[in-house]
Amino acid sequence: MKKSVYSLVLMDDVIKAVDEQAYLLGTSRSNLINQILAQHLSCVTPEMRMREIFDSVTELISSAFQVQQQRSASLMTLRTALDYKYRPTINYKVELERAPDEYLGTLRVMIRTRSAALIRLFDSFFTGWTAMETKYLAEKGGSCACELSEGSFTRRLINSGLDPETAGKAISEYLTVLNRAVQVYFSAPSEFAAALPGIERQYREMMKTSTV
């Protein structure tokens, strides 16, 4: 969304109040003023669109997730515990683009552990998950823009031109299917092959309604 520079003459007390609120919200003075004016004049800003997407995710996401408070309008963090020994946690971070083009945003999945064995399991799971996604997305003419490093998985979220509410629904469904597969894998890694057909079936069902 295009922006231009304008000069405004405002009262010092107004600027002080704006600056205090901008600090609390983790944004800039200009961005906050832009949001206030857009809301008053019924204009849709990137922040409004992202908030609507995240509100949809929050409403629809599985109870297995804990939604963490975020100061950034473009970032949402969810946390879930693994059914594995000392119950380590996995963080799912969704960061949306202000002006989405090919991609709506980025998903980052990270495991909180210092255990080398647990990190190897994490990497092994997401190696297989990437292969599965690459296969099924290719069948729909798409591709999986993924990157795996030690204990961290990054995937670009495809912009399918969905409205904010539907985009939030698609993200929540993807996260739910992914987390369910993660939980099954870590609960019994040696038995995951037997559960894989069911997981692939859930993934294909998800793709029938939307793709992210």
List the helices and strands and how they pair.
Layout: H1 12-25, H2 29-40, H3 46-60, E1 66-68, E2 75-81, E3 89-96, E4 103-112, H4 116-139, E5 146-149, E6 152-158, H5 164-187, H6 192-209
Antiparallel strand pairs: 1-2, 2-3, 3-4, 4-6, 5-6
Describe the overall structure.
This protein has helices spanning 12-25, 29-40, 46-60, 116-139, 164-187, 192-209; strands spanning 66-68, 75-81, 89-96, 103-112, 146-149, 152-158. It has 212 residues and is of the alpha+beta class. A 6-stranded antiparallel beta sheet has the order 1-2-3-4-6-5, covered by helices on one side. β2 (75-81) and β3 form a beta hairpin. The longest helix is centred in the middle third of the chain and has 24 residues, at 116-139. The chain is elongated. The model has no long low-confidence stretch (mean pLDDT 89).
User: Largest beta sheet: what is the strand line-up?
Assistant: 1-2-3-4-6-5
Distance between the termini: 22 Å
Major beta sheet, specifics? 6 strands, antiparallel
Helix content: 40-55%
Structural class, from helix and strand content?
Answer: alpha+beta
The overall pLDDT average reads: 89
Write down the secondary-structure element order: HHHEEEEHEEHH
Question: Helical region count?
Answer: 6
Question: What is the tally of beta strands?
Answer: 6
What are the low-pLDDT stretches, counting only 5+ consecutive residues below 50?
A: none
Cα shape: elongated
What is Rg? 20 Å
Which oligomeric form is depicted? single chain
What share of residues are in beta strands? 15-25%
